[in-house]
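User: My collaborator sent over this chain with a note saying "see what the structure looks like." That's all I know about it. Can you take a look?
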Amino acid sequence: FSPVEVALPPPSALYLVRGIDRGDDLANWSPDEALPAIAAAGLSLAVIGASLWISRYVFETIPHVEDEFANLWQAKVMASGRIALPSPPDAESFLVPFVVDYHGWRFGKYPPGWPAALAIGAWFGFPYWVNPLLAGVTVWLTFRLASRLAGRLAGVLAAVLTASSPMLLMLSGSLMPHMLSIVLTLVWMLA
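Assistant: Without extra context I'll predict from the sequence alone. Here is the result:
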């Protein structure tokens, strides 16, 4: 083997990228500002991964309580472009927990907000991905809120505590609406 002239090693081991617009809110960040945000983003990604694992290997990507059955059923109906389905003949023989048959129409008994969010995942064929993604958003928004209220160190601490919460991890692996509720609450608090 002999060296090839066109494949010369770079003149230095470090290349600096200059002139890239990182956005107004990031342009003047120091390492003291950037490192906590990077840590919180990493925690958010770790929570998404852990929640997906819990969803797959603990809950087996299936509903376990009646609320989840009703919400997933309604989400699949919404993913098909409908709000309700006609009741089947002899509807009592085709009972779905917490799904109502009323005047010839069958629909979930819960408000439509969570089933509509879950319908996005159902439309793609992965309804069990919705809560893990919302859990990652929860960790990030918690970091943002705590940073605003008490500084970046407090933000990272709040993100760590949120990410390590067994309740958050278990709920984010389920098909329950709690993650959407906390995300909407955090968004409202940050607004």
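A starting point for your reply to your collaborator: The longest strand covers residues 99-102.
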